[in-house]
Design a protein that fits this description.
eight-stranded mixed beta sheet, binds S-adenosylmethionine
């Protein structure tokens, strides 16, 4: 199994892959970030980083169709977050992600496009992740669900826009070969750090519990 990542522009890198090189492409493009009334991306420093990134700014209003053309070319099947924002072929098999959202002024669900055949699906999971390192970070459990539902053992997975690397962590946990790209240097290094933290085995604390003098006395029956 391999987990290959690179800090590069997917538009450049995708050109180098042959047709249908990957079995499954999972893309979460920047979308809806600055649309009127939209609040995707949260507030504060991380949101400013997303705004300051030229690539993201232009994507929000005019997503390049060539990105999707290339993604469909290099992948046998695709899963695309925010599919309702893009010009994609019709599909019956989308995933509705119910975010169990208590606030009425935030989106309660998200449309995830897939190129697979079959009935539409529902995935329910709270999106309020603690300690986010990326403004649009998706839960690892969501990616695990998508891989368990749509990928076959031995599939090669591709994420052209990894962000926090949730997709990479899920692919690693499930034993899939994985290739991921991220254009932003800071997101790339914080994502790598997060991946290492998730996947490095923690030392097992097998030392005996410390007993207080009182416990010792109780145990020896004094
Ligand atoms: C919506 S976020 C992905 C969030 C990710 N799914 C997660 O769970 O953290 C989109 C990411 O695409 C990156 N990006 C934008 N244009 C890109 C490009 N041309 N090539 C590679 N990455 C790009 C952005 O920097 C951003 O981190």
């Amino acid at each position: 199994m391999y987990s290959f990542v690179s800090n590069r522009d997917c538009m450049e890198v995708m050109k180098t892959f042959p047709d249908k090189y990957f079995d499954l492409g999972i893309a979460d493009p920047p979308y809806g970030i600055k649309q009127s009334g939209g609040q995707t991306g949260g507030k504060g420093k991380l949101r400013n980083r997303i705004f300051n990134h030229g690539a993201i700014d232009s994507w929000d209003f005019k997503p390049p169709q060539e990105f999707f053309t290339e993604l469909f070319r290099v992948c046998e099947n695709v899963i695309i977050f925010g599919g309702n924002y893009f010009n994609l072929p019709p599909s019956r098999c989308f995933v509705c992600w119910d975010k169990v959202q208590p606030w009425k002024n935030f989106s309660q669900c998200e449309f995830i496009y897939t190129s697979f055949k079959g009935p539409a699906k529902l995935f329910r999971m709270d999106n309020r992740i603690k300690g986010k390192i990326h403004p649009t970070q998706k839960p690892v459990a969501l990616y695990k669900y998508l891989l368990e539902t749509f990928a076959k053992p031995g599939d090669k997975i591709f994420d052209p826009m990894m962000g926090s690397q949730s997709s990479r962590i899920a692919a690693y946990m499930l034993g899939f070969d994985y290739t991921g790209l991220e254009i932003d240097t800071d997101f790339y290094s914080s994502g790598n750090k997060r991946f290492e933290e998730w996947t490095t085995p923690k030392p097992v604390d097998d030392s005996l519990p410390k007993l207080s003098e009182k416990d010792v006395q109780r145990k020896v029956g004094r």
